[in-house]
Structures are given as structure tokens and as C-alpha cells.
Write a structure and sequence with these properties.
71% of the residues lie in helices and 5% in strands. With 214 residues, it is mainly α.
Length: 214
């Protein structure tokens, strides 16, 4: 989604300039120059930043906090359930700038301590099923639907694929884990939103330095 967003911003900028240029008496060559710079920026963004430059810009704009808050709610869900399941969390990142600084191509990330083995016992698979679905569930509870979570679903699928359990068992267990997470997050919704606000407050953005930790 990063490249379409960046392209949309570039097209919007050129379109606005095309409308305003005649009114301001600006030369058509200026529009051509801006269009060339916009296309060059898109190419550089795709090559250097994996297409995430559009998100960096969008998050820096006044409306960007809404996008970051949604990411923070998602990551707060992971964080709360990971704590309940005693799965160590290495770091939580909210926003494209935080992820870019960490060398991660994402808009948000909760980095967990990897499992001790590739093939996990059923009890551990259940724990991981709850933790990995918690971000999606948190988004759905607060916003009605989830936008993020593709990487979470992919990792969960790999864990169950390596487990040796059949697909029917994996699906049944994941549905049960999801119901358990929904109940848990509904019961601590205040804590979820409070944690999300703390993550949002610490999220860096272009042109803004987050407050230092106390």
C-alpha cells in the first residue's frame, strides 16, 4: 500500500499546482519540473525506502496521527496479550519512521522473542495463536475491522504448518484462541486504549521528536 499512497500524494500535488499555476501567473514549465521531481521522488522512494516514503509523509501531516493511533491500538493488543501469556517482547514500534530506523519495512511492529523450537507443543501453539491474533482483534474491537495483521497471520500459519497438526485442528484452535482474545481485550479495553496512547506518544514522526522517557 505504500507505493499507491506515495503516488497519490504526488499526483495530488501536481494536480493542485496545475490548477493554481495559471491563477498565480506561474510558468507551465514549473508544473513540468514539479511533475519530474515527483516521479523522481517516487523512484527513489521505491529503491531506497521500499515505497514507504508515502507513509512517512502521510504520518507527518496533520491527519497522520489517526493512522498512527490505529497502528498503536494494534500493537497494544499484541503487547497486552503477550504479557498475559508470558511471551517476552523485544520491542514495540509504531509508525513507518520508527520501523525504518530499525531496518523494518512496516508501519508497526511488535517484535517477540522467537519460539525455542520450530515445532511447538499444543499448549505453546495456543499461546502464540492468542498473541499473534491480538493485534487484529484489538483493531476490530475499536474500529470495526482490521487493516493490519497480514504478517501475523502468515507467521501463525507457518507455526501451525510446522506443528504436524491437520488443518482442521489448526483452524479450530485459532478460532478458539480468537474468541479468548476478544473476551480478554473487552475486559481490559481501558488498559488497551491507555497503552495505545502511550505508544502513540512515543511514536516518532518527520519533523517531530517524541518526548524523552521519564
Amino acid at each position: 500500500m505504500a507505493e499507491p499512497l506515495a503516488a497519490g500524494i504526488a499526483v495530488a500535488l501536481v494536480s493542485v499546482l496545475a490548477v493554481l499555476a495559471p491563477l498565480l501567473g506561474l510558468s507551465p514549465w514549473l508544473i513540468t519540473l514539479v511533475a519530474a521531481l515527483a516521479l523522481g521522488s517516487l523512484t527513489l522512494d521505491a529503491a531506497r525506502f521500499g515505497g514507504r516514503g508515502g507513509h512517512l509523509l502521510a504520518e507527518a501531516l496533520p491527519g497522520g496521527q489517526r493512522r498512527l493511533r490505529r497502528i498503536a491500538v494494534h500493537e497494544a493488543g499484541h503487547l497486552l496479550i503477550a504479557s498475559a501469556e508470558a511471551i517476552p517482547v523485544r520491542q514495540v514500534l509504531v509508525g513507518s519512521l520508527a520501523c525504518l530506523r530499525a531496518g523494518i519495512s512496516s508501519g508497526g511492529c511488535t517484535e517477540l522473542e522467537p519460539p525455542a523450537a520450530a515445532k511447538l507443543p499444543l499448549s505453546d501453539l495456543r499461546r502464540w495463536s492468542r498473541v499473534l491474533q491480538a493485534g487484529i482483534v484489538a483493531e476490530q474491537l475499536h474500529y470495526g475491522q482490521a487493516i493490519g495483521g497480514a504478517d501475523d497471520r502468515a507467521l501463525l500459519g507457518r507455526l501451525w504448518g510446522l506443528s504436524g497438526h491437520d488443518a482442521a485442528t489448526a483452524q479450530r484452535e485459532q478460532r478458539q484462541a480468537r474468541r479468548e482474545v476478544e473476551q480478554a481485550l473487552k475486559a481490559c479495553e481501558h488498559d488497551l486504549l491507555q497503552r495505545a496512547e502511550l505508544l502513540l506518544l512515543a511514536a516518532p514522526r518527520l519533523g517531530r521528536t517524541p518526548p524523552a522517557a521519564a
